[in-house]
Design brief:
Layout: H1 2-16, H2 23-34, H3 40-49, H4 51-66, E1 69-70, E2 76-77, H5 79-110, H6 113-133, H7 147-162, H8 168-178, H9 183-209, H10 215-243, H11 249-267
Antiparallel strand pairs: 1-2
Helix pairs in contact: 1-2, 1-10, 2-11, 3-9, 4-9, 4-10, 5-7, 5-9, 6-8, 6-11, 7-8, 8-9
């Protein structure tokens, strides 16, 4: 039964990490329902560590787009990919500062039912408003994103780091769309930004928690990682195919609904 609960948890993480609907909001609901047999300190680490499986899914799907080196025939460096990574690193600066110096503070302050519910609802409303505004799209390649734009998108990511429930992917996609980036490129840039940010967050949590895990906790990590990896592959491919024909309003409406459900649970 405990393994089934961990599998469900990994599936939820893999789906909600990449769709702009807030993994935190959904995990709060399901932690309440699943009642996993671990202490709070471990769960704080577990929530972040299983994100590593989601990162591996991005690397698996987009390896050719993110790996700049090639040794086929002769050694080759793709300068466009190198430039992309510099932009991604710039975009990650705000969230890195938040994570290194304020992570525990904001987690204690905002990681609760009320904050997450209102973040879900507010960002859901923003999604609907932005899609109704029909911002002009003029950027159809990551190479066209300049450093100023990358920093603005990074600030959106930092806001998500401060307020659980905002959704990291949701915040960065909204920021990119407002700047004129196409939905597909906005999603891809968000995926790539997640690699250093989520890897760093996972490493930081491990260091803070320490490496003193018992057998049950190690098994939970392994199962969560594998399930999160496999589910993330499906979720990423679904999102890219979905946004080729649809906008993000449906995610906005869905966020509002989930936010109201969390408020209802809190009241009950």
């Amino acid at each position: 039964m405990e393994i089934i609960k961990i599998i469900i948890y990994g599936i939820i993480e893999g789906i909600t990490e990449w769709l702009p609907i807030s993994s935190t909001g959904h995990l709060i609901i399901f932690e309440h329902l699943l009642n996993l047999p671990f202490n709070e300190n471990f769960m704080n680490t577990f929530r972040v560590i299983i994100q590593f499986g989601a990162i591996l899914a991005v690397i698996f799907i987009y390896f050719k787009k993110i790996w700049p080196f090639s040794n086929k025939g002769k050694f080759f460096i793709d300068e466009d990919i190198i430039k992309m990574w510099f932009k991604i690193l710039v975009a990650c600066i705000p969230a890195t500062i938040i994570g290194l110096f304020f992570d525990n503070f904001f987690e204690k302050l905002f990681y609760n039912y009320i904050s997450v519910a209102f973040a879900l609802i507010i960002v859901g409303i923003i999604f609907v408003i932005i899609e109704n505004k029909n911002f002009n799209t003029n950027i159809y390649s990551i190479n066209e994103i300049n450093y100023n734009m990358a920093l603005i998108i990074g600030i959106c990511q930092a806001i998500a780091a401060i307020f659980p429930g905002v959704s990291r992917s949701g915040a960065t996609i909204i920021g990119a769309i407002v700047l004129g980036v196409s939905r597909e490129i906005a999603a891809e840039f968000t995926f790539f930004m997640a690699i250093p940010v989520m890897f760093g967050a996972s490493l930081l949590k491990l260091i803070n928690f320490g490496f003193n895990f018992d057998k049950k906790e190690i098994i939970a990590f392994i199962i969560g990682l594998i399930v999160s990896f496999l589910t993330s592959i499906v979720a990423i491919k679904f999102l890219i195919n979905f946004i080729k024909k649809h906008d993000f309003k449906v995610f906005g409406y869905y966020r509002i609904l989930i936010g109201l459900i969390i408020l209802l649970l809190f009241i009950i």
